[in-house]
Design goal:
- Helix 2 packs antiparallel against helix 8 and helix 9 packs parallel to helix 18.
- Helices cover 33% and strands 17% of the residues.
- 47% of the residues are buried.
- It is α/β, with parallel strands linked by helices.
- The N and C termini lie far apart (54 Å).
- The protein binds flavin-adenine dinucleotide (FAD) and iron/sulfur cluster (2 copies).
- One iron/sulfur cluster (SF4) binds next to helix 8.
Length: 466
């Protein structure tokens, strides 16, 4: 008999007063008893719709059944047949729009907490390690495949290609692998030790990761193919170029792009300055512009860095916010304030060029735009000023043009994203495949991983034919 409980088994969390003083993880994870209790809510559907909601097609009922039987090793092995980053996905996947959205238990109550269960077994495995598998060394005459970028798309493609027997080298521009998982998502949502471990697992499959290599500068795509002996390339360079508002005062001291702000904190560990070399200056009154995950992360980081007041300024209403609901609730619990239907029109500063206030305008919602959300329209004469000494602009990112500029044969669309065949992920260059944010624009970790998987299959098919 399945557990009739209508709501998810709650996940223990650090309390808000404590957690805003540290960078430790907010959600603490299930105990074994809680995981088994939650797993027993699964109805083991004959045609499980939840699998269709998972871009990497994990056999969800199978791994949940194993948890309900207390076979945690079996459960993690089942997940790993399809997913190379389970501890990451269990934490940051927007499950509410994916696997859990499709769960039949969601019709009369809350869906099964698939993400929390995935996280539980991934964490359980970390605390119950088995001897590492012998390194999966590929044959020395296997074809070489290059992967450009070590975000979730690149890491997934690399792991799958290594399993297929190819010699895989990942080239990463930054000094540590992981992409946004490393430099964007903060420690309190995704501890870096978890990422380290998942990267190590991928290396144990035989993947070599070379950091501090910027493709387009250190080597071009053509050089990788013609001089470095690679038979195929997967490009997963993400969408890391910050967008700006284009309003007066954006060059004042105290105005950051979210990309710079989060990179300083997450990658350069600015919150441990002077122990680490990169500083970050956070003053008293912080405003974060935007309503997505990046805005929520920036606001919550600012609070932990000691800001007295953090306001999120968003031009639509709460209903249209693209951030995960769970993260909006966490931010609200922590005391972040929200000013909806508002957008800045100018940043203003003192004679030394330091930001000290911001002029905003009120908005109202009109007809839906191409995104399907109601278009915000400025209300004439509604301008007002608010005092602020730090602003983080989190209104989106775009494609870095470096690769397309140095490889003119690589076709991109008018927004700079690489054009691919939507079934094979092959680009305009036959040996080059691409996936993740550099193809779709800013999306999700699991969508990038799904693209990495499909591209790896296509690369395999292509290399078998040549
Ligand atoms: P990325 O993760 O961007 O990785 C690309 C990598 O390529 C980077 O490491 C970059 O340095 C490297 N690179 C770029 N150019 C070159 C080059 N020329 N040579 C070598 N290397 C290069 N998604 C979720 O699902 N859930 C969340 O909670 C979530 N929160 C987010 C929070 C933040 C702050 C941000 C910024 C994004 C968030 N996302 C979230 C979105 C998600 O992280 C991305 O969609 C995903 O990381 C895209 O993966 P990717 O592999 O395509 O690219
Ligand atoms: Fe759900 Fe993401 Fe896990 Fe797939 S990988 S089952 S979408 S949490
Ligand atoms: Fe279990 Fe929900 Fe999937 Fe059915 S849809 S198998 S209840 S997780």
């Amino acid at each position: 008999m399945p557990n009739p409980q209508k709501t998810k088994t709650p996940i223990p969390k650090q309390n808000p007063e404590e957690r805003i003083k540290n960078f430790n993880e907010v959600a603490l994870g299930y105990s074994a008893e809680q995981a088994i209790q939650e797993a027993k809510r699964c109805l083991q559907c004959k045609n499980p719709p939840c699998i269709k909601g998972c871009p990497v097609e994990i056999d969800i009922p199978a791994f949940i059944k194993l948890i309900s039987e207390g076979n945690f090793r079996g459960a993690i092995n089942k997940i790993k047949e399809k997913n190379n980053l389970p501890a990451v996905c269990g934490r940051v996947c927007p499950q509410e729009d994916q696997c859990e959205l499709m769960c039949v238990r969601g019709k009369k109550g809350e869906p099964v907490a698939i993400g929390r269960l995935e996280r539980f077994v991934a964490d359980w495995e970390m605390s119950h390690p088995v001897e590492q598998p012998v390194n999966n060394s590929p044959s020395p005459d296997a074809p070489k495949v290059a992967v450009v970028g070590s975000g979730p798309a690149g890491l997934t493609a690399a792991a799958d290609l290594a399993r297929m027997g190819y010699r895989v080298t990942v080239f990463e521009a930054l000094h540590k692998p992981g992409g946004v998982l490393r430099y964007g998502i903060p420690e309190f949502r995704l501890p870096k030790a978890i990422l380290e471990r998942e990267v190590k697992y991928i290396e144990s499959l035989g993947v070599e990761i070379h950091t501090n290599v910027l493709i387009g500068k250190t080597f071009t795509i053509k050089e990788l193919l013609e001089n470095e002996g690679f038979s195929a390339i997967f490009v997963g360079t993400g969408a890391g170029l910050p967008h700006f508002l284009g309003i007066p005062g954006e060059d004042l001291n105290g105005v950051y792009s979210a990309n710079e702000f989060l990179t300083r904190v997450n990658l350069m560990k600015a919150y441990l300055f002077p122990e680490y070399a990169t500083p970050i200056k956070i003053k008293q009154k912080v405003a974060v512009i935007g309503g997505g995950n990046v805005a929520m992360d920036s606001a919550r980081v600012a609070l932990r860095l000691g800001a007295r007041e953090v306001n999120v300024i968003y031009r639509r209403s709460r209903k249209e916010m693209p951030a995960r609901e769970e993260e909006i609730i966490n931010a609200e619990e922590e005391g972040i304030k929200f000013q909806f239907l508002t957008t800045p029109v100018a940043f203003l500063g003192d004679k030394e060029g330091n930001l000290n206030r911001m002029r905003c305008i009120k908005m109202q919602l009109g007809e839906p735009d191409e995104s399907g959300r109601r278009r915000p329209i400025p209300i004439k004469g509604s301008e007002f000023e608010i005092p602020v000494d730090t602003v983080v602009v989190a209104i989106g990112q775009g494609a870095n043009p470096l690769l397309s500029q140095t490889t003119p044969e690589l076709k991109v669309n008018k927004r700079g994203y690489i054009e691919v065949n939507d079934k094979t992920y092959r680009t305009s260059i036959p040996q080059v495949f691409a996936g993740g944010d550099i193809v779709t624009g800013a999306a999700t970790v699991i969508a990038a991983m799904g693209a990495g998987k499909i591209a790896a299959r296509s690369i395999d098919e292509y290399l078998r034919k040549t």
